[in-house]
Amino acid sequence: MTTNNNEYEKEANYLLKPDLSVFDSAILNSIIKKKNTFKICKNEKLANLGWLLENVYLVKRDYCKCFDYLHAKEYEKAWFLLDNIDVSLSLISDNFDNAEMERYNLIFLRRQVHNLQKLFPYIFFISRECVIKKEKCSICGKENSLRSFCEHEPGKLYCGELCLMEVTDADLKSFAIVKNPADKYCILKPDGIEFNYFIIEYYLKESKGLFEPFDVIESFNLLPVFEKIGDNDLCPCGSGKKYQECCKGTENKKFKHIELVFPHDIDKSIRTIQRTPEQNKSVLITCEKIIKKNYSFSAGQYFNSEIKRRKCSKDILENDLISYKNTLSDLSVKSVSFNKGLFDDFSKINFVDVNLIYDNIIEKNIPEGWSVHKLSECISRISTGLNPRDHFKLGKGNIKYITVKNLGEDGTLDFSSCDTIDEDALKLVHKRSDIRKGDILFASIAPLGRCYLIQNEPIGWDINESVFTIRPNLEVISAEYLYMYLTSKQFIKNAEDNSTGSIFKGIRQSDLLDLYVALPPKPIMDRISLFIRDFLQYKKLIDDSRSCFIDLKENICSLFLEGQAKMKD
Amino acid sequence: MNNELVTIEESTLDFDSIKQEAYYPKELDDYLSKCDVWIVPEEIHRDGYDILFPEHTKDVKRFLFCKGMKIDVPCKDDDFHEIELHDASILLGSFLLTSIVLPLFINLISSYIYDKVLSKDKDNEVKLNLHIKSQKGKVVKIKYKGPASKMNSTLKEVEKIANDDKQ
What is the three-state SS of A92-122? Predict the structure, then answer.
């Protein structure tokens, strides 16, 4: 499709100027007016051309506006405009060929936009994860499903109108802090912290204007603090671990290095060389040398270790940074009031002053109405996972392979440092463990007694041999009550007393099953269980949010250290 | 072949094993059995959904279908949901196909990636799983994870190996 058409001659000629920087809104109005007329007449070709010219006008105008913002140090506004331009250019290229893009200088603009984006210090973004349940075509309104869809193709133009899929029903699953989101609108910008835009300032100083092409060469170099480190020295990252057990061999020790290349430096050399065919070759070699010598400086350390996709509270968080911050503040307030309510409720349960000692004399110490049972009488199943041995190999597949090390002190599962297994191995392991929602995981060796209550169906992970999985007999005991009981200090102490091994203590299944559990009357147990259930749900919410904060804190610290962020006055 | 971009392993998936899955629509068996390529759910699990597919699965299916490929998703319309994931990587999904259609498939999927990524002066990471069923019935899983610009050449190498094995 081309714009060689007299209908838009004046407007097209206006937009053909490659360094257009003064904009006349009358031209835009004229394009829109003509486009709308062609839409009404159902002149598809001319309506589409109108759409192209309208967007060329807007892209060129926004590109210039972006530089106004950069010079005015309104960097965020410039960032958002660059992202808008990138999206618009992408949509234009879906509908018009490269020749047409070239005609309006759009390929040059696209390269400039991508290079400018690389100069910004934004590394981490908030991104959402949604399940799309229903969507309809923006052109005809028909609801599209897997096998039933209209003839309109998303992203294509139909009589001057872009076909988009309007999502009419979606299920928001989570938010995450990520490095490379699909759209980069939600910049992480905590209060009191300011990004350092010195690369952009440098670019503006050196560049001869917004239409001078430039190039950005990115590379990763070793951070100076890592240069003379021995394997047994403390790791410079501050983890407290030895270097060989921490950052050695990882990407953490590298920082991103940026070189800016401007053609105006190269031109000087070219002018001094005679342009014979043989010498043209030497021109290229000279250019390469100049490019390599060009400006270079540190762009700050990029955290190369993948930012774990921490789920935040999906029901509460909104899909932009402002509401993200607001809701987290709200969460903090709620958690304080919740904790207060928690302690108030606990004080109403009348089992204080009772010394719950879990040994053979327990019956003498428990309150009236309570009973004592061996753990074996309270559960319907106990099992473990499977060790690899000859069965399977670790490191294959994406299934997380949980060991005692991954059972957190605070009742969480840490998936970040897990080994992985493949689907075949999972089948073997699961055949033995049969872990399900409602089961309790129990660390059978040091750290003995760490527990995890499985609150959702376990998908994509299983356990190894060192983790017991305990299924409560729900006619006798609730999962929540048993979980709290197993995590109590005194039960763990009792388990340790019954464990074997000199350095790495472990408890046998049979010994664990012989330990005693004190059970309250059913109404009290129900009440405690209900209460613990709410507590665990809320705890998960807070844990997830806390993880987000920790990620955020760590990321921001690195920005400070490398001079890429600074504190506001 | 660039081993950092591709992993090859035995696959547990097969057309017959998919037919045993709860999500498989038995009423569409006749139609689905005639397809050369199935887009299968794999690796994406979220609470509340038995199966999920990456964003743009419908778009990929439509593109390949319009280019003459017999392709479908072995599930009911109502069970089909796409998930919009966080990052800018292009997650093409998992494809179960016969080795006969592999050359055509590689050309078409590369063409799709060219249109969506490379033609726009970008080089996003692409993730793609292929479960290729040989004429002897063995299914091999090829996992590609790497830049869009290297996908076509890498998959062509895979195709070459598959052809050498056949001989």
Answer: HHHHCCHHHHHHCCHHHHHHHHHHHHHCCCC
Chain A contact for B48, CB < 8 A?
Answer: yes
The pair of structure tokens assigned to B64 is 């390949």
Q: Does B27 touch chain A (CB under 8 A)?
A: no
Give me the DSSP letters along A302-356. ---SPPP-----TTT--SSHHHHHHHHHHHHHHHHHHHHHHHHHHHHSS-TT---
Q: Which of B49, B86, B115 sits opposite A127 (nearest CB)?
A: B86
Residues of B in contact with A424 (CB under 8 A): 12
Interface contact A482, partner B, CB < 8 A: no
What residues in A contact B88, CB-CB < 8 Å?
Answer: 180-182
Locate the domains of chain B by residue range: 6-166
Residue A378: phi and psi, rounded to 5, are -100, -10
pLDDT in tens, A421-453: 988 899 899 999 999 989 999 999 888 888 999
Is the ipTM value over 0.90, yes or no? no
Tens of pLDDT, residue by residue over A108-128, are 999 999 999 988 888 777 777
**A457 and B CB contact within 8 Å:** yes
Chain A neighbors of B93, CB-CB under 8 A = none
Tens of pLDDT, residue by residue over A354-386, are: 344 444 444 455 666 778 888 999 999 999 998
Tell me which amino acid residue A524 is.
I
Q: B76 to chain A: nearest residue by CA? A: A146
Q: Show residues of chain A in contact with B9, CB under 8 Å.
A: 396, 422
Question: How close A398 gets to chain B, by Cα (Å)?
Answer: 8
All domains of chain A in start order, with CATH:
6-118 (no CATH), 208-298 (no CATH), 371-519 (3.90.220.20)
pLDDT of residue A270: 34
| Tokens coding B69 | 């490929």
Q: What pairing do the DSSP bridges indicate for beta strands A399-402 and A461-463?
A: parallel
Amino acid symbol at B12:
T
